[in-house]
Amino acid sequence: MASSLDSQPTANGTFAADPASHIAKKPKILSTITPAEILSEFSHHDPSVTRINNGSFGSCPASVLSAQKQIQLQFLCQPDDFYVNHLQPGILRSRTLIKQFINADHVDEVSIVDNATTAASIFLQQIAWGFAEGRFQKGDAAVMLHYAYGSVKKSMEAHITRAGGHVIEVPLPFPVTSPDEIVQEFRRTLQRGKTGGRRIRFAVIDHVSSMPSVVIPVKELVQICREEGVDQVFVDAAHGIGCVDVDVKEIGADFYTSNLYKWFFCPPSVAFLYCKRSVESSCNLHHPVVSHVYGNGLAIESAWIGNRDYSPQLVVPKAVEFINRFEGGIEGIKKRNHQGVVEMGEMLAKAWGTHLGCPPQMCSSMIMVGLPACLGIWSSEDCLKLRTHLRDKFAVEVPIYYRAPKDGEVGPVTGYARISYQVYNKPEDYFKFRDIINKLVFEGFTCESLSNEKA
Amino acid sequence: MASTATINGTTTAADPISRIPKKSKLPSTPHQFITLAEIVSEFSHHHPSVARINNGSFGSCPASVLAAQKEIQLQWLSQPDDFYFNHLQTGFLRSRTIVKQLINADHVDEVSIVDNATTAAAIVLQQVAWGFAEGRFQKGDAAVMLHYAYGAVKKSMQAYVTRAGGHVIEVPLPFPVTCVDEIVQEFRRALQRGKMGGRRVRFAVIDHVTSMPSVVIPVKELVKICREEGVDQVFVDAAHGIGCVDVDVKEIGADFYTSNLHKWFFCPSSVAFLYCKRSMESCDLHHPVVSHAYGNGLALESAWIGTRDYSAQLVVPKALEFVNRFQDGIEGIKKRNHQAVVEMGEMLAMAWGTHLGCPPEMCCSMIMVGLPACLGISNNEDTLKLRTHLRDKFGVEVPIYYREPKNGEVGPVTGYARICYQVYNKPQDYYKFRDVINELVREGFTCESLPN
């Protein structure tokens, strides 16, 4: 199952071949991975936990972890040799593979970073310098979605608001019934933002929002940005590669980031940041942790930010190898995950008498399922408490989202569970969740009964 | 040492982090000290045929700490949400508390854990950049660094200070250096020169132990001079710090102090701390990678910068446990490393007819040893080529520094090897190096013969 990693150290402490170099670059389907093999690959997952939250922290198969360990051992064995002879070629190899997957024009456009949170900081720091250096004026605007990830919102505050920029949030409906709702809100917000002659310097658009999780029509929104004269467009696809279709040229954004440890079977943590070459500001991007390679372009800067464990960034080839053991490779996985999560979501919604948070075509491998109103979820705190209760009492891991009811709603559904489906999941996971909620309903459980314990 | 998972997916109290002793516990009787055989075993993952006399670059980590790290990684992989909610922050607090005790900080709030000193420098310098952007500093205000500041720090000064409008001043330092006073005088001179014309010196970054060439800098005296000369902020870069030199942050008196723990404190790659004196809270330090923890103080911001493997930062208790298996703990290790590196350095200098780059009291567990002039090291490229040659041909790992000869010097020593001594080293490592160089000399080898 795991390829033998024949990095043989020479007598002088150098390594002739390194662990990553021999891994097949093109899909080579010898035989499709079997359910038993999948089980084995994820046998390190706690067997007693119903793990239907792949979206938060991702997952990594044993064969990739094993390859990662080989790389770590190689470093520990002779770090100088590793640093001088293997680190940079390994990172280049990962970048090249990613370039192919995302249809970027040139490997220079692909940098590897820790996670989308880091990528956002890199992009936003460049904007902050824009204000400091007079390219942007105080009051110039930046747009983000209301459902932007918490870290991104804070990053906007830390870099943009602090620098004098005006941050505009696009209100989005939830539940949502069609992409058009989102498109209309976005256009409206941009136009409102421009009133009084204000310049909109950039927009941050989620490809798949986190909570609540919905697939955003990024291609259309990027187009609107161009039409409305937005200078730079940054797509935050924390949930991206392995979850939705990622063709950066098709999507057309200036910058695009996605994690590889969430849906692409890499260990924590590794992500990429794509910067379109033709965009002038691309060359202004710097990694905030400055090392001696500062000024050589973001890709080179990100490949050395001081001494640390770069192994997650070097096992991308091994993750690709794992993916190619599945029928249809990553496309097959995406399709089956999507079908799986829609089927399970509909099953749950039916069992509970609730509904999905969006139509099936607006979800990827995650979907929002309404929880029975009688559970009495009345705040974000209730969501956290219920989530903890589900984890501690029933070993079900699933994040819950609070939707504030609108005026006049009767018996509103205020809580939505975000279920994920990844290759290691099975229907039993969702049947268990279904039955637990049904049991809680049967017992007359409400969130009020939960103590104010630390989530 | 497996952490037992409960049926509900939470872990029992017996998780890998909590089982580690929280307080430093010195062994009570001598026979409990680690044995030579145990040390060999702990570092058996090091390449057996490499003379690894460069602990300074990438550090080293014993097998027992690596095993503890692996437990933590497995715990995360097994149930990441539970780890995130129930174990991550307590683990961080435990590491920070141990560091606070080791460095004599007043309060654990003053201690943040970051990846490495390079990151710490970016954190401190980013706030200097905001100082310029937000009008607290004026264009032309100065920042001071040593000529021998680490390459990454120099670039960081360029990226954050020069770019923001600051004027960067380098303090020239002699090498070889003969006494502490040479450094003190140069520093004071540079500060006074910097202040001419009424210029404000806003910031100084001072190495505790320079990297190349490696010399222990009299930081306490330099910090005092900074105070006397009205420097606003003093940042000590002790990438080589804890486990290498004495680190008492109150004694040293700097506003910010960073040190790696993966170099000389037996932690895995990578973990470091950044100490920020409480009175500097107004400086508003932030981690450049902004997460939802933004605004809660640097320590909390640094403890969550998005999903990643934090295990290296959580094994500090286990590293302390390892350190305490040695007689007199970290103090004993430091002392013995220092004695050994001086002894080995003097042995080499004598064997090659050269000299040390500084007096023994100005080195810690690293020392610069002159290489025979006949090797013909005439620039930086030669040092890299020679280093590669030593690695590839002879299995010796040692960085080499190029010192530009002064006018009129006859047969100058231009190349210096930076040798390190850590607990896994033995005299044979240095005899091997000695003999390799002697062989090269005998063969009439020069760097000119090496390909580009």
UniProtKB/TrEMBL annotation, chain A:
Pfam families: Aminotran_5 (PF00266). The keyword Zinc does not apply. Keywords: Pyridoxal phosphate. Residues 93-281 form the Aminotransferase class V domain. This is Aminotransferase class V domain-containing protein.
From TrEMBL, chain B:
The keyword Transcription regulation does not apply. Pfam families: Aminotran_5. InterPro entries: Aminotrans_V_dom, PyrdxlP-dep_Trfase, PyrdxlP-dep_Trfase_major. Residues 1-13 have a biased composition (Polar residues). Residues 1-27 are annotated as: Disordered. Keywords: Pyridoxal phosphate. The keyword Ubl conjugation does not apply. Residues 88-281 form the Aminotransferase class V domain. This is Aminotransferase class V domain-containing protein. It comes from Rubroshorea leprosula.
